[in-house]
Amino acid sequence: MQTLHVQGHIPAGGIAIVGSRTPPARAFDFAYELARAIERPVVAGLAAGIDTAAHRGALAAGMPTVAFVGYGFGATFPPENAQLERDIVRNGGAVATLRAPGEPVDDAALVARDRLQAEYSVAVVLVASELSGGAMHTMRFARELGKPSFAVTPPAASQVEYAWAGNVRALADGAVPLAFDVSEALQTLRARIDRSFNPR
Asked: Which residues does residue 128 pair with via DSSP β-bridges, in sequence order?
C-alpha cells in the first residue's frame, strides 16, 4: 500500500484544472482567471503551464490550492516552482505525493499524480492539451472514477491546432463542453456541479 505524503491540508470540494505545460498564452490566462473566480479549492499538478496558472489564480483569490506532484519532497520539479510550492502550503493548501522524500520525478509517478488529481477532486476541467499531454491521463481517470469532466471548446480558428487536440478528443469522449469565456464557463460548472456556488 502506497503512502501519500502531505505537506499542509487537503481541503474537500476541490476542482482540478489541468492542461498543457506549453499552452497557448490565452489558455494560460483563461486557467488563471477561472481559478481566481471559481471560489472553490483548486487542484493541479504544479507543472509549468496550465497547472502553474491554476495554482496562482487560486492563491490570488485567497483560496486554498492542492498540488499533487510526481516527486518526493525536496526534489521540486520544475525547480522554478519551489517558491510556488511553499506559497501553496503557507496559504492553507497542500502539496502531496506518493514518492518518498528526495525521490526525483519519473513517468510512472506522474501518471499516479494524474490519478490523484481526479480522485481528490469533485470534477476535472481540461483547459488546453495536446493528445499526448499528461492531463489526458487525468481526464481518463475522471471518467473511470465517475467524476464530472469538462473540456474547454477550442476557439473556432484553433480546433485543428496541435495545442488543442486533447480537448477535441476529450469532448468526443463525453466531456461537457465549456465556453472559452470565464463567465460562461463558470455558469456551466455551477449548473452541473453545485447550484449553490456563485461565481464572481
From this structure: none
Q: Are 110 and 134 in contact (CB under 8 A)?
A: yes
pTM equals 0.93
* 101 C-beta neighbours (distance < 10 Å), count: 11
- Looking at the DSSP bridge assignments, the partners of residue 155 are none
On the question of a cis peptide bond just before residue 78, with omega within 30 degrees of 0, the verdict is yes
The string of pLDDT tens digits covering residues 62-103 is 999 999 999 999 999 999 999 999 999 999 999 999 999 999
Question: What one-character DSSP code corresponds to residue 93?
Answer: -
Query: Which domains can be identified in the chain, with CATH numbers?
Result: 5-188 (3.40.50.450)
The three grid cell numbers given for residue 149, joined into one nine-digit string: 469532466
Cβ neighbours of residue 146 closer than 8 Å, sequence gap 6 or more: none
- Residue pair 128/167 in contact by the 8 Å Cβ criterion: yes
For 5, left (φ over 0), alpha (ψ -120 to 50), or beta? beta
Q: Which residues contact 45 (CB under 8 A, 6 or more apart)?
A: 18, 51, 67, 68, 69, 70, 110, 113, 114, 117, 134
